[in-house]
Specification:
The chain has helices spanning 8-27, 91-98, 125-138, 154-159, 220-227, 239-247, 258-265, 292-308, 310-318; strands spanning 101-105, 108-109, 113-115, 122-123, 144-148, 165-166, 180-182, 187-196, 211-215, 232-236, 253-257, 271-274, 280-283, 286-288. It has 335 residues and is of the alpha/beta class. It holds the Pfam family SBP_bac_3.
Length: 335
């Protein structure tokens, strides 16, 4: 096959046509033009779609009370029975007969309980605690059913018996002990502040008139309102929703426990932990009130995790971003 070269006449015609087109473009608006990109307008709360359930009008809440009742003191465990041989008539025997342990948690607390985007499995430090309890009853950590709860729903789920236990970064407080029981603490966190790098928030003194997000039903709200009375609280259903609000410019900061905030910071390089600790939070396994045998059993499981070094392995796997840590909290028993 032969190729035909363009003749000199054809090239001259093309050049002439191009010159005419340029002349028309210079004198009219006949040519297509791409508009210059516009700068985004300032974002106010409610302009961008907000996560379902987000609220910007938040009433003042009481400061969490964990000191007037020795909240972290719990029941002494007895010897752990062998798996699948729970004492007759016990809460654990009822769970064994059902064939699964029902655990309340959430899937929006990175590092503690979240859904792995690749495998789809629910994972995290709290999940490993829950699986240890299931292993103690059945000998199999997978004999478990997870029920997703918001922070505000944790106590009610225990009161109405829709879950056997709650393992969801649930702080032990005197107020909550009026309605539910707790294990000994399995983790100690410290409330801090997570802010965007351009927010100007470097600690609690910078929170006046700033929008700070927290999940409803948490002790973080009342404590922060007491420390920074002029803060403008924004509440959501989950901590993941708080991160979304920060990314959309609808919140200037988030305040809760440092371990939860570290999980949010892992997902976005433009946020950072700032300021000192605002107070300690002792996480316990929530258990329905009156189920003292279950409290003792769970405390036995937690004791075993401490003594065997499994607790430290779990910490290294999920929470090493917080540093080497100081080891598991030591239990205090009242009997």
């Amino acid at each position: 096959m032969t190729r035909r070269r363009a003749s000199g006449t054809s090239i001259r015609r093309l050049l002439t046509a191009a010159a005419v087109l340029l002349a028309i473009c210079a004198s009219t608006t006949a040519c297509f033009r791409f508009p210059a990109p516009e700068s985004p307008p300032p974002v106010a709360f409610g302009v961008n779609p907000t996560p379902p359930g987000a609220e910007s009008q938040v009433a003042r809440e009481p400061v969490p009370n964990s000191q007037n009742c020795d909240a972290t003191v719990s029941l002494r465990p007895g010897p752990l029975p062998p798996p699948n041989r729970m004492p007759r008539g016990s809460t654990m025997a009822e769970i064994q007969e059902r064939g699964r342990l029902i655990v309340g948690l959430d899937i929006g607390s990175n590092l503690f309980s979240f859904r792995d985007p690749i495998s789809g499995d629910i994972q995290g430090f709290d999940v490993d605690i829950a699986r240890a309890v299931a292993r103690g009853i059945f000998g199999n950590p997978a004999t478990i059913e997870f029920r997703v709860l918001s922070s505000a729903d944790r106590t009610q789920a225990l009161v109405d018996g829709s879950v056997d236990i709650v393992v969801k970064t649930m702080s032990i407080t005197c107020d909550r002990l009026q309605e539910v029981s707790f294990s000994t603490p399995y983790y100690v966190a410290y409330q801090r502040i997570l802010s965007t790098r351009n927010s100007g928030v470097n600690g609690p003194a910078g929170l006046a008139n700033k929008r700070v997000c927290a999940a409803r039903g948490t002790t973080s709200i009342g404590r922060l309102q007491a420390i920074a009375p002029r803060v403008r609280m924004v509440t959501t259903t989950t901590w993941a929703d708080c991160l979304v609000l920060m990314q959309q410019g609808q919140a200037d900061a988030v305040s809760t426990d440092d371990a939860i905030l570290a999980g949010l910071a892992e997902q976005d390089p433009w946020v950072q932990l700032v300021g000192p600790s605002l107070g300690a939070e002792f996480y316990g396994v929530g258990i329905p009130r009156g189920r003292d045998d279950m409290v003792r059993f769970v405390n036995g499981v937690l004791d075993r995790l401490r003594l065997t070094g499994e607790w430290q392995q779990m910490y290294n796997r999920w929470l090493s971003i917080l540093g080497p840590g100081t080891g598991p909290p030591q239990p205090v028993y009242r009997d």
